[in-house]
Specification:
The chain is of the alpha+beta class. It contains three helices and three strands; from the N terminus they run E-H-H-E-E-H.
Length: 64
């Protein structure tokens, strides 16, 4: 669900929050396992923070 106040994240911030590289993000998008960004300009995209949070919540937790 998208909220009007949902923060838009640019790719460097998505990389920091997910620990994924640029190529991993785009590969997983092609595989359908990572959220697609929204276009925010002619040459700019950003991801909804809620989409990234939902993706992170769906990931398995590593066991020690």
């Amino acid at each position: 669900m998208t909220q009007l106040s949902d923060t838009m994240l640019r790719r460097p911030e998505v990389e920091r929050q997910t620990g994924l590289s640029r190529s991993s993000i785009y590969r997983q998008m092609d595989e359908g396992s990572f959220p697609r960004p929204r276009r925010i300009g002619r040459k700019s995209v950003a991801w909804l923070a809620s989409d990234i949070d939902a993706w992170k919540a769906s990931r398995p937790i590593a066991e020690n």
